[in-house]
Design brief:
The structure is a single chain. This protein is α/β, with parallel strands linked by helices and 155 residues long. It has helices spanning 24-27, 33-44, 49-61, 98-113, 123-128, 130-143; strands spanning 6-10, 17-21, 66-71, 74-80, 85-90, 118-122, 153-154. The strands form two sheets. It has a five-stranded mixed beta sheet with strand order 3-4-5-6-7, with helices on both faces. A two-stranded antiparallel sheet has the order 1-2. It starts with 5 loop residues before the first strand and ends with a strand.
């Protein structure tokens, strides 16, 4: 049959232009699944409580961060642009589940390929010992040059 006309539309999350066929332009508002997830996750729930606690800690330390930072298909809870470090705030329930553990391992590999260490804080640690979280952040900032990023940094 005749070729369906392409329409250029703009992603509601990242603003990137992308092309869709025919009536798809009435349904599609995001260029990709990660953009749709990012938009909908934060539109509905915002940052989790552990993420907000670490954000407040970083603000108090005078450290800039970007929430929900994307690297390819993977998202970091927080990214410290001045230091090239990602931070994950791991909920005690979700992050013990096998799919979550596998996803974290895949994400670590992708981040390691571009020399970005991923610092993981458990919800329990965030709730019980923020001083240890602060020390770990400062240690990773100080040691980043000598770190091998293959390891997950679990605090």
């Amino acid at each position: 049959g005749p070729k369906t006309q392409l329409t250029e539309i703009y992603c509601k999350q990242c603003g990137k232009a992308f092309s869709v066929r025919g009536k798809e332009s009435e349904r599609r508002t995001f260029c990709s699944q990660p953009c749709a997830w990012r938009f909908n996750h934060h539109a509905r729930w915002g940052a989790t409580v552990p993420e907000r606690v670490i954000q407040a800690l970083l603000l108090g330390m005078g450290i800039a961060y970007i929430p929900e930072w994307m690297l390819g298909l993977y998202r970091a809870d927080l990214y410290l642009p001045d230091h090239g470090i990602a931070i994950e705030c791991d909920g005690d329930y979700w992050h013990t589940l096998e799919p979550s553990i596998r996803a974290s391992a895949r994400k670590a590999v992708v981040f390691a390929e571009v020399n970005i260490p991923v610092l993981h804080f458990s919800e329990t640690l965030i709730n019980k010992n923020l001083t240890q979280c602060k020390k770990a952040i400062l240690d990773v900032i100080r040691e980043k040059q000598s770190l091998t990023c293959e390891q997950l940094i679990l605090v």
